[in-house]
Structure formats: C-alpha cells, structure tokens
Amino acid sequence: MLNKSLLVNNISNIEIARLNAEEVIEIFSGRKFRRMHDIDINTYNFSHILVDPPRSGLDLDVINLVNNFENLIYVSCNPDTYIRDIKLLNNFKVEKLALFDQFANTEHLEIVSILKKINQ
C-alpha cells in the first residue's frame, strides 16, 4: 500500500524499511542489516523521529536514541505511559498535542504530540 501511494503521488525521496525499535537502535549504532543493504544511513541528516510505542511505552534504550534528535513526534495509546515518558524526556518541550477518540464509547484514546528539543 505504501509503495503504491508513493508511486501514485510521484514521491521519490523516501526509502522504506520495516524495523522494530531494537533494530533501529542497532542501525544507528552501525550494525548492517541485509534488508537495508541499499540504504546508507550515514548519508541522511535526520532531525525528526516518530515513535508509536506499545501500551507499555518507550524503553530506556529508545529514550536514549530519541535524545539524539531535535524533534520528536510521539503517538501514544496509553496516557499513563505517555506522561511517564514525557517526564523522562525532560530535555524536550511539548509544542503541540492532540487527542483522538478513535474508539467511540470506550475509554481508549490516541495522543499525538510534537516535541522540540530544548536548547541548553
């Protein structure tokens, strides 16, 4: 579906890679993956990272990785772990926040926030 969308919209400046959080951390640490053989991560100038963790929130390794970026887009389905993680990301400031009630008549909601690193 993503490949088709890129084609239909004539987008050619995006590389697609499906990786879990541990693999992303390993890639930024220099590990090579066969499915990433044609992508040189060092040629990119990343300023943003998007995280969409499970209900348990971010683990400390991901929080350490996130701290290497200037901007963070955080999607969460659990307000409790979102608040916990935001406190741990104390070198970021929440710039924008939105709540989405995607599951009507339930207690579940999605939080999407945009955070920017605080210049220290």
Automatic annotation (TrEMBL):
GO biological process: methylation; tRNA processing
Record's keyword terms, sorted: Methyltransferase, S-adenosyl-L-methionine, Transferase, tRNA processing
Residues where S-adenosyl-L-methionine binds: 52
PROSITE patterns named among the record's database cross-references: SAM_MT_RNA_M5U, TRMA_1
Entry GO terms, CC: cytosol
Molecular function (Gene Ontology), one example: tRNA binding
Pfam families: tRNA_U5-meth_tr
Residues annotated as the enzyme's active site: 77
InterPro entries: MeTrfase_TrmA_AS (IPR030390), SAM-dependent_MTases_sf (IPR029063), TrmA_MeTrfase (IPR011869), U5_MeTrfase_fam (IPR010280)
Protein family according to the UniProt entry: Belongs to the class I-like SAM-binding methyltransferase superfamily. RNA M5U methyltransferase family.
PANTHER family: TRNA/TMRNA (URACIL-C(5))-METHYLTRANSFERASE, TRNA_TMRNA (URACIL-C(5))-METHYLTRANSFERASE
Official protein name in the record: tRNA (Uracil-5-)-methyltransferase
